Amino acid sequence: MTEPILYVDDLTMHYTTRAGDVSAVDNVSFTLTKGESLGLVGESGCGKTSVAICLLKLLPDNAHIKGGHIYLDGVDLVPLSEEQVRRYRWRRISMIFQAAMNSLNPVYKVGDQIIEAMETHLENFSYPAAREKVAELFRLVGLDPALMDQYPHEYSGGMRQRAVIAMALACDPDIIIADEPTTALDVIVQDRILKELRAIQQKLNMGMIYISHDIAVIAEVSDCVGVMYAGRLVEKACTEEIFHHPIHPYTAGLMSAFPSIVGPKRELTMLPGEPPDLLHPPPGCRFHPRCPYATSICMEQVPEFKEYGGDHFAACWHPLEG
Amino acid sequence: MGEALVRVAGLSKFFPLTRGLFRESQEFIHAVEDVSFTIAPGESLGLVGESGSGKTTTGKLLVRLLDPTAGHIYLRANGSEVDIATLRGKDLKTFRRRVQMIFQDPYESLNPRLTIFDTIAEPLIVQGIGDVLEREERVAEMLVMVGLTPPSSFMFRFPHELSGGQRQRVAIARALIVGPTFVVADEPTSMLDVSIRTGIMYLMQDLAQRLGVTYLYITHDLAVARYMCQRIAVMYLGKIVEQAETEELLQHPQHPYTRALISAVPIPDPRIKRQAIEIKGSIPTPINPPPRCRFYDRCPIADAFCERNDHPPLRDVGGGHYVACYKT
Asked: Can you tell me the ipTM of this complex?
Protein backbone atom coordinates (compact mmCIF):
# COMPACT_ATOMS: atom_id res chain seq x y z
CA MET A 1 0.00 0.00 0.00
CA THR A 2 1.17 3.52 -0.76
CA GLU A 3 1.99 6.02 1.95
CA PRO A 4 -0.97 8.07 3.10
CA ILE A 5 -0.83 11.75 2.17
CA LEU A 6 -3.34 12.61 4.84
CA TYR A 7 -3.47 11.07 8.28
CA VAL A 8 -6.12 12.28 10.70
CA ASP A 9 -5.43 11.07 14.21
CA ASP A 10 -7.95 11.27 17.07
CA LEU A 11 -9.40 14.54 15.88
CA THR A 12 -11.82 16.15 18.35
CA MET A 13 -13.61 19.42 17.73
CA HIS A 14 -16.17 21.30 19.80
CA TYR A 15 -18.43 24.23 19.08
CA THR A 16 -18.83 26.54 22.05
CA THR A 17 -22.41 27.75 22.42
CA ARG A 18 -24.24 29.56 25.19
CA ALA A 19 -25.89 26.28 26.12
CA GLY A 20 -22.53 24.50 26.43
CA ASP A 21 -20.04 22.64 24.28
CA VAL A 22 -21.31 20.75 21.25
CA SER A 23 -19.17 17.70 20.63
CA ALA A 24 -19.29 17.79 16.84
CA VAL A 25 -16.23 15.68 16.04
CA ASP A 26 -15.07 13.11 18.54
CA ASN A 27 -11.87 11.06 18.20
CA VAL A 28 -12.04 10.68 14.45
CA SER A 29 -9.10 8.91 12.79
CA PHE A 30 -8.57 7.95 9.17
CA THR A 31 -6.02 8.02 6.39
CA LEU A 32 -6.17 8.95 2.74
CA THR A 33 -3.68 7.80 0.12
CA LYS A 34 -2.81 9.44 -3.16
CA GLY A 35 -5.46 8.86 -5.79
CA GLU A 36 -7.93 7.43 -3.29
CA SER A 37 -11.53 8.57 -3.04
CA LEU A 38 -12.98 8.39 0.46
CA GLY A 39 -16.72 8.84 0.93
CA LEU A 40 -17.84 10.29 4.24
CA VAL A 41 -21.47 9.48 4.79
CA GLY A 42 -23.88 10.31 7.58
CA GLU A 43 -27.01 12.26 8.39
CA SER A 44 -27.33 15.97 9.11
CA GLY A 45 -25.43 16.93 12.22
CA CYS A 46 -23.21 13.84 12.25
CA GLY A 47 -20.07 15.97 11.91
CA LYS A 48 -19.08 15.21 8.34
CA THR A 49 -18.85 18.85 7.27
CA SER A 50 -17.18 19.71 10.59
CA VAL A 51 -14.42 17.22 9.77
CA ALA A 52 -13.96 18.95 6.41
CA ILE A 53 -13.61 22.43 7.87
CA CYS A 54 -11.10 21.08 10.41
CA LEU A 55 -8.96 19.70 7.58
CA LEU A 56 -8.85 23.13 5.95
CA LYS A 57 -8.81 24.85 9.33
CA LEU A 58 -11.62 27.05 8.14
CA LEU A 59 -13.10 27.10 11.60
CA PRO A 60 -15.76 29.55 12.70
CA ASP A 61 -14.91 31.58 15.84
CA ASN A 62 -16.78 29.28 18.18
CA ALA A 63 -15.17 26.07 16.91
CA HIS A 64 -12.11 24.69 18.66
CA ILE A 65 -9.96 21.70 17.85
CA LYS A 66 -9.70 20.09 21.29
CA GLY A 67 -7.27 17.38 20.41
CA GLY A 68 -5.75 15.22 17.75
CA HIS A 69 -3.57 15.75 14.73
CA ILE A 70 -4.03 16.32 11.01
CA TYR A 71 -0.87 15.19 9.27
CA LEU A 72 -0.49 16.32 5.70
CA ASP A 73 2.64 14.69 4.29
CA GLY A 74 3.89 14.34 7.84
CA VAL A 75 3.27 17.95 8.86
CA ASP A 76 0.73 18.44 11.62
CA LEU A 77 -1.68 21.23 10.62
CA VAL A 78 -3.36 21.51 14.02
CA PRO A 79 -0.72 23.62 15.84
CA LEU A 80 0.04 25.80 12.80
CA SER A 81 -0.89 29.48 12.77
CA GLU A 82 -3.36 30.89 10.26
CA GLU A 83 -0.42 32.35 8.34
CA GLN A 84 1.24 28.94 8.09
CA VAL A 85 -1.96 27.09 7.23
CA ARG A 86 -2.53 29.41 4.26
CA ARG A 87 0.49 27.84 2.61
CA TYR A 88 -1.37 24.54 2.55
CA ARG A 89 -4.92 25.65 2.02
CA TRP A 90 -6.06 25.54 -1.60
CA ARG A 91 -2.58 24.61 -2.83
CA ARG A 92 -2.52 21.24 -1.06
CA ILE A 93 -6.10 20.77 0.14
CA SER A 94 -9.02 22.52 -1.49
CA MET A 95 -12.75 22.27 -1.13
CA ILE A 96 -15.86 22.23 -3.29
CA PHE A 97 -18.59 23.79 -1.24
CA GLN A 98 -22.16 22.63 -0.98
CA ALA A 99 -24.07 25.61 -2.33
CA ALA A 100 -22.48 26.61 -5.61
CA MET A 101 -24.83 29.59 -5.71
CA ASN A 102 -23.38 30.99 -2.51
CA SER A 103 -19.76 30.20 -3.11
CA LEU A 104 -19.53 32.42 -6.17
CA ASN A 105 -19.60 36.18 -5.80
CA PRO A 106 -22.43 37.53 -7.98
CA VAL A 107 -20.69 40.81 -8.87
CA TYR A 108 -17.45 39.39 -10.29
CA LYS A 109 -16.87 37.46 -13.48
CA VAL A 110 -16.46 33.75 -12.81
CA GLY A 111 -13.02 33.57 -14.42
CA ASP A 112 -11.76 36.50 -12.34
CA GLN A 113 -12.87 34.79 -9.14
CA ILE A 114 -10.83 31.73 -9.98
CA ILE A 115 -7.86 33.92 -10.90
CA GLU A 116 -8.21 35.71 -7.58
CA ALA A 117 -7.99 32.40 -5.74
CA MET A 118 -4.76 31.64 -7.64
CA GLU A 119 -3.35 35.11 -6.94
CA THR A 120 -3.98 34.64 -3.24
CA HIS A 121 -2.48 31.21 -2.97
CA LEU A 122 0.26 30.92 -5.57
CA GLU A 123 3.70 32.47 -5.23
CA ASN A 124 4.76 32.97 -8.83
CA PHE A 125 1.52 34.32 -10.17
CA SER A 126 1.16 35.91 -13.59
CA TYR A 127 -2.14 37.09 -14.98
CA PRO A 128 -1.80 35.78 -18.57
CA ALA A 129 -0.67 32.39 -17.30
CA ALA A 130 -3.59 32.33 -14.87
CA ARG A 131 -6.09 33.02 -17.65
CA GLU A 132 -4.53 30.26 -19.65
CA LYS A 133 -4.91 27.96 -16.64
CA VAL A 134 -8.57 28.92 -16.14
CA ALA A 135 -9.31 28.14 -19.77
CA GLU A 136 -7.66 24.76 -19.31
CA LEU A 137 -9.65 24.11 -16.11
CA PHE A 138 -12.89 25.07 -17.83
CA ARG A 139 -12.22 22.54 -20.55
CA LEU A 140 -11.40 19.93 -17.89
CA VAL A 141 -14.75 20.38 -16.12
CA GLY A 142 -16.71 20.58 -19.39
CA LEU A 143 -17.33 24.31 -19.63
CA ASP A 144 -16.71 26.50 -22.67
CA PRO A 145 -13.65 28.69 -21.83
CA ALA A 146 -15.51 31.66 -23.34
CA LEU A 147 -17.78 31.53 -20.29
CA MET A 148 -15.02 32.75 -18.00
CA ASP A 149 -15.92 36.35 -18.76
CA GLN A 150 -19.54 35.90 -17.73
CA TYR A 151 -21.18 36.42 -14.35
CA PRO A 152 -22.55 33.65 -12.10
CA HIS A 153 -26.20 34.53 -12.80
CA GLU A 154 -25.62 33.74 -16.47
CA TYR A 155 -24.77 30.17 -15.51
CA SER A 156 -27.20 27.33 -14.87
CA GLY A 157 -27.01 25.36 -11.61
CA GLY A 158 -24.91 22.62 -13.17
CA MET A 159 -22.56 25.11 -14.83
CA ARG A 160 -22.03 26.93 -11.53
CA GLN A 161 -21.18 23.68 -9.82
CA ARG A 162 -18.66 22.97 -12.57
CA ALA A 163 -17.13 26.44 -12.10
CA VAL A 164 -16.80 25.80 -8.38
CA ILE A 165 -15.06 22.51 -9.14
CA ALA A 166 -12.72 24.35 -11.52
CA MET A 167 -11.96 26.83 -8.75
CA ALA A 168 -11.12 24.05 -6.33
CA LEU A 169 -8.70 22.60 -8.88
CA ALA A 170 -7.05 25.96 -9.63
CA CYS A 171 -3.90 25.41 -7.58
CA ASP A 172 -3.38 21.72 -8.45
CA PRO A 173 -4.24 20.40 -4.99
CA ASP A 174 -3.23 16.94 -3.78
CA ILE A 175 -6.50 16.54 -1.95
CA ILE A 176 -9.92 17.83 -2.82
CA ILE A 177 -12.82 17.83 -0.39
CA ALA A 178 -16.25 17.77 -2.02
CA ASP A 179 -19.03 18.67 0.40
CA GLU A 180 -22.37 17.54 -1.08
CA PRO A 181 -21.52 19.17 -4.42
CA THR A 182 -24.56 17.77 -6.20
CA THR A 183 -27.24 17.92 -3.53
CA ALA A 184 -29.15 20.85 -5.06
CA LEU A 185 -29.00 19.47 -8.60
CA ASP A 186 -31.43 17.35 -10.57
CA VAL A 187 -30.49 13.72 -11.11
CA ILE A 188 -29.48 14.01 -14.75
CA VAL A 189 -27.13 16.92 -14.04
CA GLN A 190 -25.94 15.25 -10.84
CA ASP A 191 -25.07 12.12 -12.76
CA ARG A 192 -22.95 14.07 -15.24
CA ILE A 193 -21.10 16.03 -12.54
CA LEU A 194 -20.41 12.88 -10.51
CA LYS A 195 -18.93 11.12 -13.51
CA GLU A 196 -16.79 14.10 -14.44
CA LEU A 197 -15.57 14.66 -10.91
CA ARG A 198 -14.62 11.02 -10.55
CA ALA A 199 -12.85 11.03 -13.92
CA ILE A 200 -10.89 14.19 -13.07
CA GLN A 201 -9.92 12.82 -9.67
CA GLN A 202 -8.60 9.63 -11.25
CA LYS A 203 -6.90 11.44 -14.11
CA LEU A 204 -5.07 13.88 -11.81
CA ASN A 205 -4.50 11.12 -9.24
CA MET A 206 -5.81 13.32 -6.44
CA GLY A 207 -7.02 12.23 -3.06
CA MET A 208 -10.70 13.03 -2.68
CA ILE A 209 -12.97 13.17 0.34
CA TYR A 210 -16.55 13.11 -0.85
CA ILE A 211 -19.10 14.12 1.75
CA SER A 212 -22.75 13.20 1.31
CA HIS A 213 -25.84 12.01 3.11
CA ASP A 214 -26.80 10.01 0.04
CA ILE A 215 -25.35 6.50 0.19
CA ALA A 216 -26.22 5.87 -3.45
CA VAL A 217 -24.02 8.78 -4.54
CA ILE A 218 -21.29 7.60 -2.17
CA ALA A 219 -21.46 4.11 -3.72
CA GLU A 220 -20.76 5.63 -7.13
CA VAL A 221 -17.78 7.85 -6.33
CA SER A 222 -15.85 6.19 -3.52
CA ASP A 223 -13.12 3.58 -3.20
CA CYS A 224 -13.52 3.64 0.57
CA VAL A 225 -16.37 4.73 2.80
CA GLY A 226 -16.37 6.16 6.32
CA VAL A 227 -19.70 6.20 8.13
CA MET A 228 -20.21 8.92 10.73
CA TYR A 229 -22.78 9.03 13.49
CA ALA A 230 -23.17 11.76 16.10
CA GLY A 231 -19.65 13.11 15.70
CA ARG A 232 -17.87 9.76 15.56
CA LEU A 233 -16.56 7.63 12.77
CA VAL A 234 -18.34 4.33 13.44
CA GLU A 235 -17.16 2.27 10.48
CA LYS A 236 -14.70 2.47 7.61
CA ALA A 237 -13.91 -0.01 4.87
CA CYS A 238 -13.72 -0.30 1.12
CA THR A 239 -17.00 0.50 -0.61
CA GLU A 240 -17.79 -3.11 -1.51
CA GLU A 241 -17.30 -4.21 2.12
CA ILE A 242 -19.39 -1.39 3.60
CA PHE A 243 -22.30 -2.10 1.31
CA HIS A 244 -22.23 -5.88 1.44
CA HIS A 245 -20.72 -6.73 4.82
CA PRO A 246 -21.47 -3.88 7.19
CA ILE A 247 -20.27 -4.50 10.74
CA HIS A 248 -21.84 -1.62 12.62
CA PRO A 249 -25.62 -1.84 13.19
CA TYR A 250 -25.98 1.84 12.21
CA THR A 251 -24.34 1.22 8.83
CA ALA A 252 -26.58 -1.78 8.29
CA GLY A 253 -29.62 0.26 9.31
CA LEU A 254 -28.68 3.07 6.93
CA MET A 255 -28.25 0.64 4.04
CA SER A 256 -31.56 -1.09 4.57
CA ALA A 257 -33.46 2.19 5.04
CA PHE A 258 -32.32 3.42 1.65
CA PRO A 259 -34.66 2.83 -1.29
CA SER A 260 -33.32 1.80 -4.67
CA ILE A 261 -34.96 1.64 -8.08
CA VAL A 262 -33.19 -1.57 -9.08
CA GLY A 263 -33.34 -5.06 -7.67
CA PRO A 264 -36.25 -6.60 -5.82
CA LYS A 265 -38.40 -4.18 -3.87
CA ARG A 266 -37.34 -5.11 -0.36
CA GLU A 267 -38.87 -3.89 2.86
CA LEU A 268 -37.27 -0.68 4.05
CA THR A 269 -36.30 -0.91 7.68
CA MET A 270 -36.85 1.88 10.09
CA LEU A 271 -34.34 3.12 12.63
CA PRO A 272 -36.23 4.03 15.78
CA GLY A 273 -35.73 7.45 17.37
CA GLU A 274 -33.63 10.35 16.22
CA PRO A 275 -29.94 11.26 16.33
CA PRO A 276 -28.84 12.57 19.76
CA ASP A 277 -28.39 16.17 20.79
CA LEU A 278 -24.62 16.66 20.78
CA LEU A 279 -24.83 19.14 23.66
CA HIS A 280 -25.50 16.10 25.79
CA PRO A 281 -24.33 13.08 23.82
CA PRO A 282 -25.29 9.72 25.31
CA PRO A 283 -22.50 7.98 27.26
CA GLY A 284 -20.80 4.90 25.86
CA CYS A 285 -21.62 4.19 22.24
CA ARG A 286 -23.53 7.18 20.93
CA PHE A 287 -25.77 4.92 18.87
CA HIS A 288 -26.93 2.79 21.80
CA PRO A 289 -30.33 4.49 22.36
CA ARG A 290 -31.34 3.50 18.81
CA CYS A 291 -29.46 0.22 18.51
CA PRO A 292 -31.42 -3.06 18.49
CA TYR A 293 -28.40 -4.94 19.88
CA ALA A 294 -27.48 -2.56 22.69
CA THR A 295 -26.58 -4.05 26.07
CA SER A 296 -25.31 -2.53 29.30
CA ILE A 297 -21.70 -2.28 28.13
CA CYS A 298 -22.81 -0.09 25.20
CA MET A 299 -24.29 2.42 27.61
CA GLU A 300 -21.15 2.63 29.70
CA GLN A 301 -18.07 2.30 27.55
CA VAL A 302 -17.07 3.80 24.26
CA PRO A 303 -16.27 0.97 21.84
CA GLU A 304 -12.80 1.07 20.33
CA PHE A 305 -12.48 1.82 16.60
CA LYS A 306 -10.64 -1.36 15.66
CA GLU A 307 -9.78 -3.44 12.66
CA TYR A 308 -11.80 -6.50 11.73
CA GLY A 309 -9.37 -7.62 9.04
CA GLY A 310 -8.75 -6.33 5.55
CA ASP A 311 -8.76 -2.62 6.43
CA HIS A 312 -12.30 -2.90 7.74
CA PHE A 313 -12.67 -0.78 10.87
CA ALA A 314 -15.66 -0.41 13.14
CA ALA A 315 -16.50 0.82 16.63
CA CYS A 316 -19.08 -1.54 18.09
CA TRP A 317 -19.45 -3.87 21.08
CA HIS A 318 -21.69 -6.21 19.11
CA PRO A 319 -20.29 -6.31 15.59
CA LEU A 320 -22.68 -7.88 13.09
CA GLU A 321 -20.35 -10.22 11.28
CA GLY A 322 -17.18 -10.13 13.41
CA MET B 1 -60.68 0.02 -11.65
CA GLY B 2 -64.03 1.62 -11.08
CA GLU B 3 -64.75 5.28 -10.77
CA ALA B 4 -61.96 7.75 -10.31
CA LEU B 5 -61.77 9.95 -7.23
CA VAL B 6 -59.88 12.64 -9.09
CA ARG B 7 -60.12 13.19 -12.82
CA VAL B 8 -58.02 15.91 -14.38
CA ALA B 9 -58.82 16.90 -17.98
CA GLY B 10 -56.80 19.27 -20.15
CA LEU B 11 -55.38 21.17 -17.19
CA SER B 12 -53.16 24.15 -18.07
CA LYS B 13 -51.51 26.95 -16.18
CA PHE B 14 -49.69 29.80 -17.92
CA PHE B 15 -47.83 32.46 -15.99
CA PRO B 16 -47.50 35.82 -17.76
CA LEU B 17 -44.05 37.32 -18.03
CA THR B 18 -44.59 40.99 -17.37
CA ARG B 19 -42.34 43.45 -19.07
CA GLY B 20 -43.33 46.93 -17.95
CA LEU B 21 -46.26 48.04 -15.86
CA PHE B 22 -49.01 48.79 -18.35
CA ARG B 23 -48.12 46.64 -21.28
CA GLU B 24 -50.09 43.47 -21.63
CA SER B 25 -47.98 40.39 -21.47
CA GLN B 26 -47.11 38.75 -24.76
CA GLU B 27 -45.10 35.95 -23.30
CA PHE B 28 -46.23 33.16 -21.04
CA ILE B 29 -44.44 30.45 -19.15
CA HIS B 30 -46.34 27.29 -19.99
CA ALA B 31 -45.84 25.72 -16.57
CA VAL B 32 -48.53 23.07 -17.05
CA GLU B 33 -50.11 22.43 -20.42
CA ASP B 34 -52.94 20.12 -21.30
CA VAL B 35 -52.37 17.60 -18.53
CA SER B 36 -54.89 14.82 -17.97
CA PHE B 37 -54.87 11.92 -15.52
CA THR B 38 -57.09 10.07 -13.08
CA ILE B 39 -56.53 8.77 -9.58
CA ALA B 40 -58.61 5.92 -8.18
CA PRO B 41 -59.88 6.02 -4.58
CA GLY B 42 -57.19 4.79 -2.18
CA GLU B 43 -54.53 4.92 -4.86
CA SER B 44 -51.33 6.90 -4.68
CA LEU B 45 -50.16 8.46 -7.94
CA GLY B 46 -46.58 9.65 -8.12
CA LEU B 47 -45.83 12.79 -10.09
CA VAL B 48 -42.13 12.65 -10.91
CA GLY B 49 -39.94 15.16 -12.70
CA GLU B 50 -36.99 17.51 -12.42
CA SER B 51 -37.17 21.06 -11.07
CA GLY B 52 -39.11 23.17 -13.52
CA SER B 53 -41.16 20.29 -14.88
CA GLY B 54 -44.42 21.71 -13.52
CA LYS B 55 -45.10 19.06 -10.92
CA THR B 56 -45.55 21.44 -8.00
CA THR B 57 -47.70 23.77 -10.11
CA THR B 58 -49.94 20.80 -10.93
CA GLY B 59 -50.20 19.99 -7.23
CA LYS B 60 -51.11 23.55 -6.33
CA LEU B 61 -53.76 23.63 -9.06
CA LEU B 62 -55.34 20.50 -7.65
CA VAL B 63 -55.80 22.05 -4.23
CA ARG B 64 -56.75 25.38 -5.83
CA LEU B 65 -53.84 27.31 -4.39
CA LEU B 66 -53.51 28.41 -8.01
CA ASP B 67 -56.32 29.00 -10.48
CA PRO B 68 -56.03 27.05 -13.70
CA THR B 69 -55.76 28.85 -17.05
CA ALA B 70 -57.82 26.10 -18.68
CA GLY B 71 -59.08 22.63 -17.98
CA HIS B 72 -61.15 20.74 -15.46
CA ILE B 73 -60.45 19.01 -12.17
CA TYR B 74 -63.26 16.67 -11.20
CA LEU B 75 -63.49 15.43 -7.65
CA ARG B 76 -65.92 12.69 -6.73
CA ALA B 77 -67.87 13.52 -3.61
CA ASN B 78 -71.05 11.93 -2.34
CA GLY B 79 -71.45 9.89 -5.50
CA SER B 80 -71.18 12.70 -8.04
CA GLU B 81 -68.38 14.55 -9.76
CA VAL B 82 -67.82 18.23 -9.07
CA ASP B 83 -65.58 20.40 -11.22
CA ILE B 84 -63.45 22.12 -8.64
CA ALA B 85 -61.57 24.21 -11.18
CA THR B 86 -64.29 26.84 -11.10
CA LEU B 87 -65.47 26.73 -7.47
CA ARG B 88 -65.93 30.07 -5.70
CA GLY B 89 -66.71 31.35 -2.24
CA LYS B 90 -68.53 29.01 0.11
CA ASP B 91 -68.27 25.99 -2.18
CA LEU B 92 -64.53 26.46 -2.37
CA LYS B 93 -64.28 26.52 1.40
CA THR B 94 -66.30 23.33 1.75
CA PHE B 95 -64.08 21.76 -0.90
CA ARG B 96 -61.01 22.47 1.22
CA ARG B 97 -62.25 19.96 3.77
CA ARG B 98 -61.92 17.25 1.17
CA VAL B 99 -58.60 18.25 -0.33
CA GLN B 100 -55.47 19.15 1.59
CA MET B 101 -51.78 19.61 0.92
CA ILE B 102 -48.57 18.57 2.72
CA PHE B 103 -45.60 20.78 1.93
CA GLN B 104 -41.95 19.99 1.43
CA ASP B 105 -40.25 21.97 4.14
CA PRO B 106 -41.53 21.46 7.68
CA TYR B 107 -39.28 24.33 8.81
CA GLU B 108 -41.20 26.81 6.68
CA SER B 109 -44.70 25.39 6.54
CA LEU B 110 -45.39 25.76 10.27
CA ASN B 111 -46.01 29.13 11.90
CA PRO B 112 -43.24 29.48 14.51
CA ARG B 113 -45.49 31.48 16.82
CA LEU B 114 -48.30 28.94 17.01
CA THR B 115 -48.22 26.01 19.39
CA ILE B 116 -48.60 22.53 17.96
CA PHE B 117 -52.19 22.49 19.22
CA ASP B 118 -53.02 25.81 17.53
CA THR B 119 -51.31 24.69 14.33
CA ILE B 120 -53.29 21.48 14.04
CA ALA B 121 -56.57 22.96 15.29
CA GLU B 122 -56.50 25.93 12.91
CA PRO B 123 -58.14 24.12 9.96
CA LEU B 124 -60.93 23.00 12.33
CA ILE B 125 -61.54 26.61 13.40
CA VAL B 126 -61.50 27.82 9.79
CA GLN B 127 -64.01 25.14 8.85
CA GLY B 128 -66.06 25.74 12.02
CA ILE B 129 -65.79 22.15 13.19
CA GLY B 130 -66.46 21.35 16.85
CA ASP B 131 -66.13 23.42 20.02
CA VAL B 132 -62.96 23.91 22.04
CA LEU B 133 -63.23 20.59 23.88
CA GLU B 134 -64.00 18.57 20.80
CA ARG B 135 -61.14 20.18 18.96
CA GLU B 136 -58.76 19.33 21.75
CA GLU B 137 -59.92 15.75 21.65
CA ARG B 138 -59.52 15.52 17.88
CA VAL B 139 -56.06 17.09 17.95
CA ALA B 140 -54.97 14.66 20.66
CA GLU B 141 -56.31 11.73 18.61
CA MET B 142 -54.52 13.01 15.53
CA LEU B 143 -51.23 13.40 17.40
CA VAL B 144 -51.41 9.79 18.52
CA MET B 145 -52.16 8.75 14.96
CA VAL B 146 -49.06 10.50 13.59
CA GLY B 147 -46.93 8.98 16.33
CA LEU B 148 -46.40 12.02 18.54
CA THR B 149 -47.15 10.44 21.89
CA PRO B 150 -48.14 11.22 24.53
CA PRO B 151 -50.11 14.06 22.92
CA SER B 152 -50.07 16.13 26.10
CA SER B 153 -46.29 16.49 25.84
CA PHE B 154 -46.49 17.92 22.33
CA MET B 155 -49.68 20.00 22.30
CA PHE B 156 -48.30 23.12 23.86
CA ARG B 157 -44.85 23.10 22.44
CA PHE B 158 -43.65 25.29 19.57
CA PRO B 159 -42.24 24.11 16.24
CA HIS B 160 -38.66 25.11 17.16
CA GLU B 161 -38.72 22.56 19.97
CA LEU B 162 -39.33 19.72 17.52
CA SER B 163 -37.00 17.92 15.14
CA GLY B 164 -37.54 17.92 11.38
CA GLY B 165 -39.23 14.52 11.43
CA GLN B 166 -41.56 15.56 14.24
CA ARG B 167 -42.45 18.79 12.44
CA GLN B 168 -43.36 16.87 9.32
CA ARG B 169 -45.61 14.68 11.47
CA VAL B 170 -47.31 17.85 12.71
CA ALA B 171 -47.74 19.03 9.12
CA ILE B 172 -49.33 15.69 8.23
CA ALA B 173 -51.65 15.90 11.24
CA ARG B 174 -52.70 19.41 10.22
CA ALA B 175 -53.50 18.26 6.71
CA LEU B 176 -55.51 15.24 7.84
CA ILE B 177 -57.42 16.75 10.77
CA VAL B 178 -60.37 17.88 8.63
CA GLY B 179 -60.75 14.38 7.19
CA PRO B 180 -59.80 14.97 3.55
CA THR B 181 -60.28 12.24 0.95
CA PHE B 182 -57.52 13.56 -1.29
CA VAL B 183 -54.10 14.88 -0.24
CA VAL B 184 -51.42 16.43 -2.42
CA ALA B 185 -48.05 15.66 -0.84
CA ASP B 186 -45.30 17.83 -2.31
CA GLU B 187 -41.91 16.20 -1.64
CA PRO B 188 -42.86 15.51 2.00
CA THR B 189 -39.68 13.55 2.75
CA SER B 190 -37.03 15.27 0.66
CA MET B 191 -35.79 17.46 3.53
CA LEU B 192 -35.49 14.56 5.95
CA ASP B 193 -32.59 12.26 6.73
CA VAL B 194 -32.73 8.65 5.63
CA SER B 195 -33.32 7.18 9.06
CA ILE B 196 -36.23 9.58 9.66
CA ARG B 197 -37.59 9.43 6.11
CA THR B 198 -38.59 5.78 6.19
CA GLY B 199 -40.73 6.43 9.27
CA ILE B 200 -42.62 9.25 7.54
CA MET B 201 -43.11 7.13 4.41
CA TYR B 202 -44.60 4.29 6.43
CA LEU B 203 -46.73 6.71 8.43
CA MET B 204 -48.23 8.18 5.27
CA GLN B 205 -49.02 4.75 3.87
CA ASP B 206 -50.52 3.62 7.15
CA LEU B 207 -52.72 6.71 7.42
CA ALA B 208 -53.84 6.34 3.81
CA GLN B 209 -55.19 2.91 4.65
CA ARG B 210 -56.68 3.78 8.02
CA LEU B 211 -58.32 7.02 6.95
CA GLY B 212 -59.01 6.18 3.32
CA VAL B 213 -56.85 8.95 1.91
CA THR B 214 -55.79 9.13 -1.73
CA TYR B 215 -52.46 10.80 -2.54
CA LEU B 216 -50.93 12.70 -5.36
CA TYR B 217 -47.32 12.22 -4.35
CA ILE B 218 -45.00 14.76 -5.92
CA THR B 219 -41.31 13.88 -5.87
CA HIS B 220 -38.09 14.13 -7.84
CA ASP B 221 -36.88 10.86 -6.31
CA LEU B 222 -37.89 7.79 -8.29
CA ALA B 223 -36.69 5.46 -5.53
CA VAL B 224 -39.05 7.08 -3.03
CA ALA B 225 -41.87 7.02 -5.59
CA ARG B 226 -41.29 3.30 -6.04
CA TYR B 227 -42.17 2.74 -2.40
CA MET B 228 -44.97 5.28 -2.11
CA CYS B 229 -46.93 5.01 -5.35
CA GLN B 230 -48.88 2.39 -7.28
CA ARG B 231 -48.58 4.40 -10.46
CA ILE B 232 -46.10 7.01 -11.64
CA ALA B 233 -46.58 9.87 -14.11
CA VAL B 234 -43.39 11.46 -15.43
CA MET B 235 -43.56 15.17 -16.21
CA TYR B 236 -41.31 17.13 -18.51
CA LEU B 237 -41.77 20.84 -19.24
CA GLY B 238 -45.40 20.97 -18.22
CA LYS B 239 -46.47 17.78 -19.96
CA ILE B 240 -46.93 14.22 -18.79
CA VAL B 241 -44.65 12.22 -21.08
CA GLU B 242 -45.19 8.77 -19.63
CA GLN B 243 -47.47 7.09 -17.16
CA ALA B 244 -47.62 3.49 -15.98
CA GLU B 245 -47.78 1.23 -12.97
CA THR B 246 -44.68 1.78 -10.85
CA GLU B 247 -42.74 -1.43 -11.52
CA GLU B 248 -43.72 -1.42 -15.19
CA LEU B 249 -42.43 2.14 -15.57
CA LEU B 250 -39.15 1.39 -13.80
CA GLN B 251 -38.53 -1.91 -15.60
CA HIS B 252 -39.76 -0.98 -19.07
CA PRO B 253 -39.55 2.77 -19.58
CA GLN B 254 -40.53 3.73 -23.13
CA HIS B 255 -40.08 7.48 -23.42
CA PRO B 256 -36.48 8.58 -24.08
CA TYR B 257 -36.73 11.13 -21.26
CA THR B 258 -37.93 8.55 -18.73
CA ARG B 259 -35.12 6.26 -19.82
CA ALA B 260 -32.51 8.95 -19.32
CA LEU B 261 -34.01 9.91 -15.96
CA ILE B 262 -34.02 6.32 -14.70
CA SER B 263 -30.50 5.69 -15.95
CA ALA B 264 -29.22 8.74 -14.04
CA VAL B 265 -30.46 7.60 -10.63
CA PRO B 266 -27.48 6.49 -8.54
CA ILE B 267 -27.70 2.98 -7.13
CA PRO B 268 -26.78 2.22 -3.53
CA ASP B 269 -24.82 -0.87 -4.49
CA PRO B 270 -21.25 -0.66 -5.79
CA ARG B 271 -21.61 -4.03 -7.56
CA ILE B 272 -24.23 -2.74 -9.96
CA LYS B 273 -22.94 -0.63 -12.81
CA ARG B 274 -25.51 1.56 -14.47
CA GLN B 275 -25.97 1.85 -18.18
CA ALA B 276 -25.79 5.51 -18.91
CA ILE B 277 -28.17 7.10 -21.37
CA GLU B 278 -26.91 10.57 -22.10
CA ILE B 279 -29.17 13.41 -23.09
CA LYS B 280 -28.02 16.85 -24.12
CA GLY B 281 -28.38 20.09 -22.21
CA SER B 282 -30.65 20.77 -19.30
CA ILE B 283 -34.31 21.52 -18.77
CA PRO B 284 -35.18 24.92 -20.38
CA THR B 285 -37.88 27.38 -19.33
CA PRO B 286 -41.07 26.87 -21.33
CA ILE B 287 -41.63 30.48 -22.49
CA ASN B 288 -44.00 30.40 -25.48
CA PRO B 289 -42.70 26.97 -26.53
CA PRO B 290 -43.14 25.82 -30.13
CA PRO B 291 -45.98 23.32 -30.62
CA ARG B 292 -43.67 20.37 -31.40
CA CYS B 293 -42.66 17.75 -28.85
CA ARG B 294 -41.34 19.47 -25.74
CA PHE B 295 -38.44 17.06 -25.52
CA TYR B 296 -37.38 17.58 -29.15
CA ASP B 297 -34.28 19.71 -28.44
CA ARG B 298 -32.75 17.17 -26.08
CA CYS B 299 -34.08 13.96 -27.55
CA PRO B 300 -31.53 11.43 -28.82
CA ILE B 301 -34.00 9.80 -31.22
CA ALA B 302 -35.96 12.78 -32.56
CA ASP B 303 -36.26 13.21 -36.32
CA ALA B 304 -37.90 15.52 -38.87
CA PHE B 305 -41.33 14.02 -38.15
CA CYS B 306 -41.06 15.06 -34.49
CA GLU B 307 -40.02 18.56 -35.53
CA ARG B 308 -42.93 19.07 -37.92
CA ASN B 309 -45.71 17.69 -35.77
CA ASP B 310 -47.35 18.84 -32.55
CA HIS B 311 -46.43 17.46 -29.15
CA PRO B 312 -47.39 13.78 -29.31
CA PRO B 313 -50.53 12.71 -27.43
CA LEU B 314 -50.34 10.14 -24.62
CA ARG B 315 -51.15 6.83 -26.20
CA ASP B 316 -51.84 3.48 -24.60
CA VAL B 317 -49.13 0.93 -25.35
CA GLY B 318 -50.93 -1.76 -23.38
CA GLY B 319 -51.69 -2.53 -19.77
CA GLY B 320 -52.35 1.03 -18.72
CA HIS B 321 -48.92 2.16 -19.90
CA TYR B 322 -49.16 5.54 -21.64
CA VAL B 323 -46.38 7.19 -23.60
CA ALA B 324 -46.26 10.54 -25.40
CA CYS B 325 -43.70 9.83 -28.11
CA TYR B 326 -43.87 9.17 -31.86
CA LYS B 327 -40.76 7.04 -31.86
CA THR B 328 -41.53 4.28 -29.36
From this structure: 0.87
